[in-house]
From TrEMBL:
UniProt cross-references to InterPro entries, sorted A to Z: Ara_Isoase_C, AraA_central, AraA_N, AraA_N_sf, Fuc/Ara_isomerase_C, Fucose_isomerase_N/cen_sf, Lara_isomerase
Protein name: L-arabinose isomerase
Domain (L-arabinose isomerase central): residue spans on this chain: 191-324
Gene Ontology terms: biological process: L-arabinose catabolic process to D-xylulose 5-phosphate
Domain L-arabinose isomerase C-terminal residue range list: 332-474
Pfam families assigned to the protein according to its UniProt record, in alphabetical order: AraA_central, AraA_N, Arabinose_Iso_C
Length: 478
């Protein structure tokens, strides 16, 4: 059974795209007289390198950098094209002073590719071959300049034609793409955050300065007016799509489904209108408003499946890291730890009713159910119920430590093929940490990991590590 395809979003902030990377090849005029045509020869090597990595990213290859003006012009062009990062490749030895200003002043994430045209030293080499392949000491010179300048950058050493090299560039490119997306992100908050929830609180200006997300408050009344103004055809189209995508509970009335659909479409319209790629709602902000019949549970699930970041209770940190999970590895899923199960050495994961059904089991159809929910004091919210797909998974929690200091707590493990819990009417699964429940939770709590987090399928701790290095935040594997 295949998972349904979510309705397409018109919001550029959530449309999936490939990393767009600039390749900055560095050399110098010193060798022109010794090897006529060396610039063209090494420019062709840079093009071959980009073509060999065409499955990893979309590449913009700058002309070979032979001086400071070339470097600064190329970086301006990369930034003007709104690329996601810069991969620096030594075409020959290039003195760092000529590129230091450009690379230390750019807002784009940087990686230094320590590679060379030929993978092996050969007995047939002459001085020309030595010159073509001498990038290693240019990499050392440039890396030294970046370290002294306090620039966060990645290093990728290897044979540029190998699968391992491509995999490492792919990891860095996705991390750079995610860091760049976070720097452009707006997080919509409907109403206000949950009172008393300390681990979700953050200095919004420090968050903006360090990682980039901007918090955009949306009044619940705006959502109510937007719901009322939606065309009937849009509501009918969404209901028809749900009929084909889910096993729809017959107890759900037409009124309940139409009201839920209007909430989902209204939220999406406001997020698109305000340029928000992530959002958060709090049940009290909706319930106490007095104009809404129910909470938007199913809406959160399908909007996550479309690529929006989401978190409950006004948690902009968690909404941002769910958004980052979408960009970094695909299908970020908002969840929290509900209870420990010591016999299976696992943790029951769930939330009130929101969850990205793109991480659902493929052998069970997700259900759109009528379910009672006392929280919020409103009528029954239609909820998408599913169990998590068994297999490797990774949890990540974004922690605010005060000021511009942030930490990402990351746990790899496995979603178990655990028994069904028939009375649990919200998305759920059991996660067994690779370090075991006791070891993982001891370390999680000591690191200050929050109770809201993103889950992604697969073991992607190393992906998160590269992102932390590029963003300049702490990485805490548990």
């Amino acid at each position: 059974m295949s998972l349904p395809t979510p309705p397409p979003s018109q919001n550029p902030a959530v449309r999936s795209s490939r990393p767009r990377i600039g390749l900055l090849g560095i050399m110098q005029p010193l060798y022109d007289a010794m090897i006529p045509g060396i610039t063209e020869h090494q420019a062709a090597y840079a093009q071959r390198l980009a073509e060999g990595l065409s499955e990893v990213a979309e590449w913009t290859v700058a002309p070979p950098v032979r001086g400071r003006e070339d470097a600064e012009s190329a970086i301006r062009d990369f930034e003007g094209a709104d690329l996601d990062g810069v991969l620096v490749v030594m075409l020959t030895y290039g003195p760092s002073i000529r590129v230091t200003r450009a690379l230390t002043g750019t807002r784009l994430p940087v990686a230094l590719a320590n590679t060379q045209p030929d993978p092996a030293v050969s007995a047939s080499w002459n001085m020309d071959d030595m010159t073509y392949n001498q990038g290693i000491h240019g990499a050392q010179d440039t890396a030294n300049a970046l370290v002294r300048a306090g620039v966060d950058f990645d290093v990728i050493t290897g044979d540029w034609q190998s699968q391992e090299f491509a995999a490492r560039v792919d990891r860095w490119a996705r991390a750079a793409h995610t860091v760049s997306a976070l720097r452009r992100l707006r997080v919509g908050v409907f109403g206000y955050p949950m009172n008393g929830m300390g681990d979700a609180r953050v200095d919004e200006t420090a968050f903006l300065r360090k990682l980039g997300p901007e918090v955009h408050v949306i009044a619940p009344g705006t959502l109510h007016r937007t719901m009322a103004d939606l065309p009937e055809q849009a509501v009918s189209d969404l209901l028809a799509w749900e009929d084909g995508a889910f096993d729809v509970d017959e107890r759900l009335s037409k009124e309940e489904r139409e009201d839920h659909a209007r909430m989902q479409l209204g939220i999406e319209h406001l997020l698109e209108e305000s340029g928000c790629g992530a959002y958060s709602t709090h049940f009290d902000a909706i319930g106490e408003d007095g104009r809404f019949a129910r909470l938007p549970m199913a809406a959160a699930s399908t909007l996550m499946a479309q690529g929006y970041g989401f978190a409950g209770e006004g948690d902009v940190l968690a909404a941002s890291i769910v958004y980052a999970g979408h960009r970094l590895a695909g299908d970020g899923h908002f969840t929290e730890m509900y209870a420990m199960d010591f016999p299976s050495d696992s943790i029951l994961m769930s939330h009130m009713g929101e969850g990205n059904w793109r991480v659902a089991r493929e052998d069970e159809q997700a259900r759109l159910i009528k379910r009672p929910l006392g929280i919020g004091g409103l009528a029954d919210p239609p909820t998408i119920l599913f169990r998590y797909r068994p297999g490797p998974a990774t949890l990540a929690s974004l922690v605010s430590l005060g000021g511009e200091r942030f930490r990402l707590v990351v746990a790899e493990g496995e979603v178990l093929d655990s028994p069904e819990l028939p009375a649990l009417e919200m998305p759920y699964g059991q996660f067994r940490p690779s370090s075991g429940v006791r070891g993982c939770m001891d370390a999680w709590l000591r690191a200050g990991g929050t109770h809201h987090m993103v889950m992604n399928s697969g073991h992607i701790a190393q992906d998160w590590k590269v992102l932390c290095e590029l963003a300049g935040i702490e990485y805490a594997p548990v």
